[in-house]
Amino acid sequence: MRTSIPWVVAVIAWGMLVACSPDTYGGTESSAGASSSPPDVCASADALRSSLSALADVQVVQEGKDALDEAWTRVEDDWAQLADDAGDQYAEQVDGVQADADSVQAAVDAAGDDPSAQTLSAAAGAVGVFLQNAGALVDEVSSTC
Question: Between the CA of residue 92 and those of 26, 47, 50, 87, 118, what are the distances in Å?
């Protein structure tokens, strides 16, 4: 199990590096029916970018699972706000990233119930996908600010 933890950190860091890649969900923004004013969406995107960075910076070996849980909780809160603020304008991307967030939560729960190399690997993979796709959405939203 101990050898899996550095791998988890590496996958999270990799996810942040590729978060600037083009939008994985390939949707385009719609000008009709934005759910929040641009400043609200921009502030939410900035908050989520910050919490994604904090999640990627967690050093599980040194800081422990509590630090990872704390970072994920902050991401969940900031993600919920961005999803609410940008949901109408970026519905397809929001739905995709929400599915990714659900996968992370399920994987983190499984790793907490049975901390094994397999469950930690699954959690790391889910976090990496979430970081990439959430980062791409944040970039797209931020480009309109």
Answer: 9, 21, 23, 8, 31
- Using CB atoms within 10 A of its CB, is residue 133 exposed (0-12), middle (13-18) or buried (19+)? buried
Write the DSSP symbol of residue 88.
T
Helix (H) or strand (E) holding 43: helix 38-57
Give tens-digit pLDDT for 105-131.
998 888 888 877 788 788 878 888 999
> Does residue 29 fall inside a structural domain?
no
CATH code, domain carrying 123: 1.20.120
How far is CA 22 from each of CA 58, 133, 135, rounded to the nearest angstrom?
Answer: 25, 9, 10
Convert the pLDDT of each residue in 15-39 to its tens digit: 444 444 444 444 444 443 444 567 8
**Residue 19 is assigned to a structural domain of this protein:** no
Q: Does residue 103 belong to any structural domain of this protein?
A: yes
Q: Tell me if 57 sits within 8 A of 70, measured CB to CB.
A: no
Query: Which one, of 95, 94, 73, 91, lies nearest residue 138 by Cα?
Result: 94
